[in-house]
Inverse folding.
């Protein structure tokens, strides 16, 4: 290299080094921004479902089924509260789980295969880890408003006895995220769609919804089915929600477990998805 | 002379035992238009991904703008524009939004992205489609949008992987015209193609790649001069007679290639060879005299056709 050419080379490398600074720092947010822009096209559907869903569920269970149960057990006969108050935190957590499951299945499959935008992002200065972060941020952006709206409808129905109940929004969000991240760790590996995502919904999310102490206490299930609840993040989220929403009584260590277990799932799901996505992009 | 913007030395990519790219070396100078010509599966796209700093090399050295893409992936990519073989525009977003989200990935502000997007829509002749859904665009328009997207960051190097594959002739010519303009503006172009006419149109210099290795390197005209004759006579006698006739044609022209459907006679003077064939009493069903092309270079080097 001659002296004349060195400044050019240094300038080119310098420009590249400078060009990498912002993407390295904010790349995850750029990905989230992209995903949120994409959501705009079906914003109306999102709004209608996030308002309609709680209305329908709380009306059917809280007014319909609850009137039957409360008539038999008395107004505070279910765990010391009305059936509506008992079931509401579980439905809230379920709503968060459903949204997270949706956002962590098809969009990830799409990004690699049907409309491979992940490869486009990666051709720009965005890393695999940042793509994963951005997707998860956008999942949160969908879960949080869903939970807030759900909670407001719960208030409307008088389903939240304790002022601490507002914290159930956080608990539900966290529960949804823990399920979503575990699902993402799996869907990010899928190369050929053989209906795995419908399977997740049918044999993962639905049984979890039914057997996580959602409609009745876990202890009322046969002991050989109770493990479904113990390993289900939804059960942990639901129970913690009940502690906050109406002061359900349980040992402190169990409440701690309700936080630690989903947290562990989040860490595992997040790091695993990052590893898988990074590996898949590097063909 | 300026130092190269891309330097590859013994660049290799292996998938288990299979070497997709098997020790290739080349350099690309700033402002140059450089091509990788070869059939499908030659290792062109794999090379492009390594140069694009998204695929880790198995061995060898690679330097893009003086940086090692293994160490400085995002930094290298901040200076590249990439047009992949398969369009990966976001179908959920409208045309202009596709450009804006992409510009953001390079850290451009919303205002910068908007300005640049409008400018590039103009360049890609898509201004009137700015609010259209990507899905509603024709193949050629999608390709132009992908090229516009790759220019959002004013790249130093533009990587184009099979830019016109699958496009009709008119769409190809529009695209070539746009690429020519970029070349005139001094953008370094690196492109892969299995179309010889595309390589001849766009490349200052190219390497012929086959089975992960470089078979030849040079300017299109020089390669043709070096590996082929000035003219080629193509004669067809019907697939069942070709081989027979070829034996009788031995000695006609400088060299013969017998393909399943036709015989190619390499010569400095095609018409003279055609007259000779007529004198021999052989009556081809069709005959044609043309200039040698890169296709002939490839045939000479590998014994195979580019498009199989």
């Amino acid at each position: 290299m001659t002296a004349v050419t060195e400044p050019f080379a240094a300038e080119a490398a310098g420009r590249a080094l400078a060009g990498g600074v912002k993407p390295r720092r904010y790349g995850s947010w750029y990905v989230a921004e992209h995903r949120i822009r994409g959501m705009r096209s079906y914003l109306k559907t999102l709004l209608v479902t996030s308002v309609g869903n709680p209305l329908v569920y709380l009306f059917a269970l809280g007014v319909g089924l609850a009137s039957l149960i409360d008539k038999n057990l008395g107004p505070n006969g279910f765990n010391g509260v009305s059936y509506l108050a008992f079931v509401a935190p579980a439905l809230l957590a379920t709503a968060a789980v459903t949204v997270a499951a949706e956002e962590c299945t098809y969009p990830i499959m799409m990004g690699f295969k049907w409309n491979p935008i992940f490869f486009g992002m990666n051709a720009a200065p965005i890393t695999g880890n940042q793509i994963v972060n951005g997707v998860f941020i956008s999942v949160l952006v969908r879960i949080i408003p869903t939970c807030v709206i759900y909670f407001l409808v719960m208030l409307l129905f008088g389903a939240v006895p304790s002022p601490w109940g507002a914290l159930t929004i956080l608990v539900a969000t966290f529960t949804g995220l823990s399920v979503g991240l575990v699902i993402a760790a799996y869907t990010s590996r899928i190369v050929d769609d053989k209906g795995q995502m419908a399977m997740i919904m049918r044999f993962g999310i639905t049984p979890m919804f039914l057997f996580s102490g959602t409609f009745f206490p876990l202890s009322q299930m046969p002991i050989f089915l109770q493990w479904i609840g113990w390993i289900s993040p939804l059960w942990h989220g639901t129970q913690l929600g009940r502690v906050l929403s109406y002061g359900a009584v349980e040992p402190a260590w169990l409440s701690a477990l309700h936080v630690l277990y989903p947290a562990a799932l989040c860490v595992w799901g997040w790091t695993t998805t990052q590893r898988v996505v990074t590996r898949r992009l590097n063909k | 002379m300026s130092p190269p913007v891309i330097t590859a030395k013994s660049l290799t990519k292996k998938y288990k035992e299979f070497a997709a790219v098997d020790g290739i070396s080349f350099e690309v100078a700033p402002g140059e238009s450089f091509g990788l010509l070869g059939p499908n599966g030659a290792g062109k796209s794999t090379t492009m991904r390594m140069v694009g700093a998204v695929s880790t090399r198995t061995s060898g050295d690679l330097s893009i703008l003086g940086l090692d893409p293994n160490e400085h992936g995002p930094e290298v990519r901040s200076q590249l524009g990439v047009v992949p073989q398969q369009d990966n525009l976001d179908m959920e977003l409208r045309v202009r939004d596709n450009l804006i989200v992409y510009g953001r990935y390079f850290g451009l502000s919303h205002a910068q992205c908007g300005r640049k997007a409008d400018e590039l829509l103009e360049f890609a002749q898509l201004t009137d489609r700015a609010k259209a859904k990507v899905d509603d665009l024709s193949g050629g328009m999608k390709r132009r949008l992908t090229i516009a997207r790759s220019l959002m960051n004013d790249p130093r190097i533009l990587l184009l992987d099979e830019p016109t594959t699958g496009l009709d002739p008119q769409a190809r010519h529009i695209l070539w015209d746009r690429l020519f303009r970029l070349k005139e503006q001094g953008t370094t172009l690196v492109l892969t193609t299995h179309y010889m006419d595309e390589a001849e149109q766009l490349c200052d210099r190219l390497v012929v790649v086959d089975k992960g290795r470089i078979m030849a390197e040079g300017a299109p005209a020089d390669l043709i001069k070096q590996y082929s004759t000035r003219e080629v006579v193509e004669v067809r006698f019907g697939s069942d007679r070709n081989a027979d006739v070829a034996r009788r044609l031995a000695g006609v022209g400088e060299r013969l290639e017998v393909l399943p459907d036709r015989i190619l006679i390499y010569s400095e003077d095609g018409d003279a060879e055609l007259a000779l064939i007529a004198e021999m009493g052989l009556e081809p069903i069709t005959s044609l005299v043309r200039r040698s092309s890169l296709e002939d270079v490839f045939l000479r080097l590998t014994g195979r056709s580019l498009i199989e």
In short: The interface with chain B takes residues 1, 5, 8-10, 12-13, 15-17, 19-24, 26-27, 30, 33-34, 37-38, 41, 115-117, 119-127, 281-283 of chain A (CB under 8 Å). The CA atoms of residues 104 and 184 of chain A lie 5 Å apart. Chain A has twelve helices and no strands.
